[in-house]
Design brief:
single chain; alpha/beta; Glutaredoxin; redox-active center; protein-disulfide reductase activity
Length: 108
């Protein structure tokens, strides 16, 4: 995981997501998930391109089951886009970079 994409856990969720002054994109994923591995490099790329404007984080659903449950994650990968602590967008399943970028822009 690159330095621009942060691991989000139950412990740091409040500080890193809810209290973030900029929008946050959370990637709910698992190591055994093939589509998740396809989306990961896209997330890394976007994190570099949007650094300072949008924060990116990953939530491992196997390790953070309470967060997955809290946000009704039923399929992975799922991207949730937060602004001001509220969910403003959702993408379920693998998607292209342009599609993910459009979702982020809609949520801002």
């Amino acid at each position: 995981m690159a330095g621009l994409v942060q691991e989000i856990t139950e412990k740091n969720f409040e500080q890193e997501v809810t209290q973030s002054p900029i929008p946050v994109v959370l990637d709910f994923w698992a190591e055994w998930c093939g589509p998740c591995r396809m989306v990961a490099p896209v997330i890394e790329e976007l994190a570099g391109e949007l650094a300072g404007k949008v924060k990116f984080g990953k939530v491992n659903v196997d390790q953070e089951q309470s967060l997955a449950y809290r946000f009704s994650i039923q399929s992975i990968p799922t991207l949730l886009i937060f602004r001001d602590g509220q969910i403003k967008g959702r993408q379920v399943g693998a998607a292209s970079k342009s599609h993910i970028l459009a979702k982020i822009q809609q949520a801002q």
